[in-house]
Structure formats: C-alpha cells, structure tokens
Design a protein that fits this description.
Layout (H helix, E strand, L loop, with lengths): L3 E2 L21 H10 E7 L4 E3 L8 E6 L2 E6 L5 E7 L4 E2 L1 H6 L5 E4 L3 E6 L4 H7 L1 H25 L4 H18 L7 E3 L4 H8 L3 H13 L3 E4 L2 E4 L2 H6 L16
Helix pairs in contact: 3-4
Length: 249
C-alpha cells in the first residue's frame, strides 16, 4: 500500500459514529479504540490497500471513499466480492488469521483509520461486548453474501444488476450518502461486470434495458432509481430492515 498521511481524525470526533447505522460506544470503549488507532492515511484511486496473501496487514476501517474486495479466478479474471464503503472494516481477517486471501483496491480517493495500538485479543479481553458486536457484523456479512449468491447472482443479468443496484443503494442510504432516489456510483463498467460476472457487452445491453423501461439508470457517476418497486420485483429483493446497528472501530 502506497499511503500518505491524511488529516488525523480523533475517534471521539468521528462523523461516522454519529450515523444511526453504527452502535454508540461507551466512553471506555472510545478511549480504548482511540488507543488502538495509530494512523489516518490516504490512498489514491486504483491503488492497492492490501493484496492477496499479505501477512501482517493492520486492521483498518474505511473512513471515506469506495474500495473493492476481489480475488482472481481461473485464467486470472478478477471477481469482485464486495464493495467496501465508509465504516466497513478492511483486513479484519489479518488481525485474527494472520493473512488475507483477497485484495482490496481503492476505487476513489480513500481515507483509512489504521488500528495497530492494541491487538484483537486485547479488545476481546477489555471490551467483549464491542468485540462480539464486531464478530456479529462479520457473520451478518456472510449471511448477506449467501443471500446474494442464491437470489442475486444466480438469476438472469437483469436480476443480478437489480440486486446490485438495490443493495448498494441501501448500504449508502444507511450511511446518509443517498439523496432521494439518487446515490453515488463511481464504478466503471468493467467494475460492475466483474461484480456480477457479466461481459461488458452483456452489461451494456442490460443497463440499456433498465434505462429504456425507466427503472434505473447511471448518469455521471450516479445511480438513479426511478422505480424502486419494479426494480425490487425483478429480483424478489427483501424488505428493508434498519433495526440492527453495526459495530465500528
């Protein structure tokens, strides 16, 4: 990772912690997390944050921007596993397992909080409620991935794209990053194709179909969902559940 120092953000002043999406931390938890944080860094677009097989990568949280988590398949094709958005952990596996089996690359300019001051074992010992909340979030991520594998990635191209649009929009909306029916979507077509396993030509035809039917379209790096109900019916998208709060370091 080629990183430069960014303006340091104190944990107690973190704007992400004020979002309803994230679980409030007690004063003692904030103090411990502040002791964990050792740096606030910036990474340029299309630069790697971590790479497959990297050992000893520090635990990080994405503070600003977008990144992708991906692996290479047979023949070297890139398979994007997920988008990393503000508040998401980066390299959590490294903190517990020693290395990661995927790469993370910045899509836009990103800022990252780096946590190297205490180990995860110390976090579990000192603040088990926070540690367990982080662990539950990891399990929820697996559950979401499983749902997408069954409902979003095994249907036709329209269903796959519909799920991607809706799921990404809702994740951004939870973070206060959507405006009405519009949200940022700073992806190249190759990124979208590698996320849902389509060729760029097939993707272009699918995007054109959704635009022609006035359901959803991409304009200047933004996603416009004109008819959410119709888009949701294309993939049997589940009703939104905003009850659960996520843990954040």
């Amino acid at each position: 990772m080629t990183a430069t120092n960014a303006e340091y953000v104190q944990c107690a002043e973190c704007v992400l912690r004020r979002k309803p999406l994230f679980r409030p931390l007690s004063d003692a938890e904030i103090k411990f997390v502040a002791e964990m944080k050792t740096a606030h860094v910036a990474v340029r677009p299309r630069e790697h944050i971590i790479e497959t097989g990297q050992v000893g990568a520090p635990l990080m949280t994405l503070y600003e921007g977008w990144a992708i988590r991906y692996r290479r398949g047979i023949g070297g094709r890139r398979h994007i596993l997920s988008f990393v958005l503000p508040g998401d952990p980066v390299a959590a596996e490294s903190a517990l397992l020693g290395k990661v089996e995927y790469s993370v690359m910045a899509l836009t300019p990103v800022a990252l909080c780096v946590f190297h001051g205490h180990s995860m074992a110390e976090l579990f010992a000192a603040h088990p409620d926070l540690a367990l909340a982080l662990y539950r979030d990891q399990l929820e991520g697996i559950r979401s991935f499983d749902f997408e594998a069954v409902n979003g990635s095994t249907g036709d191209a329209v269903a796959q794209l519909a799920y991607l649009f809706l799921h990404t929009f809702d994740r951004l909306d939870e973070r206060g990053l959507a405006n009405g029916n519009v949200c940022p979507f700073p992806l190249k077509r190759a990124d979208i194709a590698d996320r849902i396993g389509l060729s760029t030509m097939h993707l272009s035809r699918t995007l054109a179909a959704l635009k022609r039917q006035r359901i959803a379209t991409l304009i200047d790096g933004n996603l416009h969902i004109s008819n959410r109900a119709r888009l949701a019916r294309l993939v049997h998208y589940p009703a939104q559940d905003r009850a659960a709060q996520h843990a954040i370091l």
